[in-house]
Design brief:
Number of strands: 0
Strand content: under 5%
Radius of gyration: 28 Å
Shape: elongated
Order of helices and strands: HHHHHHHHHHHHH
Structural class: mainly alpha
Number of helices: 13
Largest sheet: none
Length: about 325
C-alpha cells in the first residue's frame, strides 16, 4: 500500500524551512524538474518549429497566435507550476486555488487561441497529417469535445476533487498531485477549445449556443466558491493544521481560496464571453463580405448579359441570292 509522501520542506521542521508566502517567493522558489516543465519545453519547441517551417516556405502565420500559445498559454502554465506558486500549493489552499484557476481556465483559453492543430495540419504531410486528421475526427474526440459533454466534465471536476477524499490524496502523493495538474489542463482544453478555439474541430456549435454555454458556466464557480467559503470542514481534513505554520491560519486561508475561486471564475468567464462575442462579430463581418462579393459577381454577370442583349447583335439571315 502506498505511503503518504511528506513534502521535502517539512523534513527540517516545517515553517523554519519554508518562509511565509510573499510575492518575492514566486521568483525565489523556481524549480525546473517536473514533468510539466518538460512538457512545456517540448510544446514550445514544436510550435516554434512549425512556425519556422511555414515562414521558410513563404507562408504567413499570425504573430498574435504565437504570442497567445507561447506566452499566454504555456507561459501562464509555467508561472504556476515551476515557480514559487508550485512550492506553496500544498501549503496554502489559496495558492492552490490560483494554480487551479490558471491551469483549468487561463492557460487553456490562450492555448486554444494559438490554433496549434491548424499549425500542425499546415506543416504536416503524408501519413502523419492523415493520422492527425483521423484522430481529430475520431468518435472519441467527437464525444469528448461535444460542448455539453465537455461542459459536464469541466463543471463536475472541482466538486469531485474538493468534496471527496481525492483532494487529501493529492496533498499526500506527489505523483497524484502532478496528475491532477495535467487533468486540469486537459479538461480546460476540452471545454474551451470547441468554444473559443480557431482549430477545425468537429461538431462546433454556432456562436449563440457557445455564448449560452459560457453564461451557464458562471453560476457553478459562484456556487463552488461560496460553498468552500462557508464550509465548516477544512478541505484536506487535518493536513493543513498538521503543518503547524505559525504564519498561516487554515480556516482563514480557505475563505480566501473560496473568494479567489468565486471572483476569479466570474472574471475569467466574463472575459471569455467578451472574446467569444468579438469572434462572433468578426465572423459575421467575414460572412457579410462574402455575401457582398457574391452579390457583386451576380450583378456583374447580369449586367454583362443585359449588355449583350441591348447591344443588338443583328440576326444573321440567308442572303437574297442564296436561292
Amino acid at each position: 500500500m502506498l505511503q503518504a509522501e511528506t513534502p521535502t520542506w517539512l523534513a527540517s521542521g516545517g515553517d523554519t524551512v519554508l518562509p511565509p508566502f510573499t510575492p518575492a517567493a514566486i521568483f525565489t522558489q523556481i524549480h525546473l524538474t517536473s514533468l510539466i516543465a518538460l512538457f512545456l519545453l517540448i510544446a514550445a519547441a514544436l510550435y516554434g518549429y512549425g512556425v519556422h517551417q511555414l515562414r521558410a516556405r513563404g507562408d504567413h502565420w499570425p504573430a498574435g497566435r504565437t504570442v497567445a500559445f507561447v506566452v499566454g498559454g504555456l507561459g501562464s502554465i509555467a508561472a504556476v507550476t515551476i515557480s514559487g506558486i508550485e512550492a506553496y500549493d500544498t501549503t496554502l489552499i489559496s495558492v492552490h486555488m490560483v494554480q487551479h484557476m490558471t491551469l483549468s481556465m487561463v492557460g487553456p483559453i490562450f492555448l486554444a487561441l494559438g490554433a496549434p492543430v491548424t499549425l500542425a495540419l499546415r506543416t504536416m504531410h503524408g501519413p502523419s497529417r492523415r493520422t492527425l486528421l483521423a484522430v481529430i475526427h475520431s468518435r472519441y474526440v467527437k464525444v469528448l469535445t461535444f460542448p455539453l459533454v465537455a461542459f459536464g466534465i469541466f463543471v463536475a471536476n472541482p466538486f469531485v476533487l474538493y468534496f471527496t477524499g481525492l483532494y487529501r490524496a493529492t496533498l499526500e502523493h506527489a505523483w497524484l498531485h502532478e496528475f491532477v495538474h495535467v487533468h486540469f489542463i486537459v479538461t480546460g482544453c476540452l471545454f474551451f477549445w470547441p468554444l473559443l478555439g480557431l482549430d477545425p474541430l468537429p461538431g462546433k456549435w454556432p456562436y449563440p449556443g457557445r455564448a449560452l454555454l459560457m453564461v451557464l458556466s458562471v453560476p457553478f464557480h459562484t456556487v463552488l466558491g461560496l460553498t468552500i467559503m462557508q464550509s465548516k470542514t477544512l478541505l484536506g481534513g487535518d493536513f493543513y493544521p498538521n503543518l503547524h505554520l505559525s504564519w498561516s491560519n487554515p480556516w482563514e486561508d480557505q475563505v480566501t481560496a473560496g473568494g479567489i475561486l468565486w471572483a476569479g471564475g466570474e472574471i475569467v468567464s466574463v472575459t471569455m464571453l467578451g472574446i467569444l462575442i468579438m469572434q462572433w462579430i468578426k465572423q459575421s463581418e467575414r460572412e457579410a463580405r462574402r455575401i457582398d462579393r457574391a452579390l457583386d459577381r451576380a450583378e456583374a454577370e447580369a449586367a454583362r448579359e443585359a449588355a449583350k442583349i441591348t447591344s443588338g447583335t443583328p440576326a444573321v439571315g440567308p442572303r437574297p441570292d442564296a436561292e
